[in-house]
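User: For my dataset I need records formatted as: sequence, then C-alpha cells, nothing else. Please produce one.
Assistant:
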Amino acid sequence: MKEKTTQEGLYLPIVEQFYSIQGEGFHTGKAAYFIRMGGCDVGCSWCDTKFAWDSELHEMTHIDSIVKGITRTSADSVVVTGGEPLMYNLNPLCIELKKMNLLTYLETCGSHELTGIWDWICLSPKKNYPPDNNIYSLAGELKVIIEGEDDFTWAEENKARVSSDCKLYLQPEWSSIKNIMPSVVEYVKNHTEWSISLQSHKYMGIP
C-alpha cells in the first residue's frame, strides 16, 4: 500500500515541515517554507539529517495536509528537501503548490528521475550515487560539499556538466569546517567562478 501511495504522489513520508530562513546557497537569507521528505538511499557519512534516512519512521502524509500547513504562514516559496525527495513522485504536490502561486525550490542530489514543477533546482551531487544525466542542464545552482581535498576534483567534474549560467557553490562540510575552510577559501580565490556557501542557519541557531 505504501509503495502505491508514494508512486501516486498523494501521500509522502514527511519528517518535518517548518517556516524559516534559507541558510545555504543562492537563496540564503530569504524566508521559505521547508518540507523535508523521509528516505534516502545515498547515505553520506557526514550527513547532518541521518534521522531522515529511514522512510518507515515517518508518517505518510496526504499532500492536502502538507499544503494546509503552508497556508498558516506568509511563505511565498517552498523548499522541498530530504532525505532525497526525488525518491517520490512530486508531481501532485507541486501542482497543488502552483495553484497557490508559490515558488517551488528543490534540493536534491539528483540520484533519481526528476518529477515535479520547479522554479529552482539546487543540485548537490554525491560521489557514491551520481546524478541522473538529465538533471544537470536544469540545475539553477550546483552546490558541492567539500570534506577533503579530492572533493575539488569532484566539483570540477560536475561543473563541466551543468549549464553555463548555473550558480556554482562550494560548501565546507560542517563537522570538518575548521580543517577544510582554509582550502575552500584558497580554491575560490584561485577559481573565481565558484562562491562559498555556508550553513548560516546553524550560526543563527534556527532550523
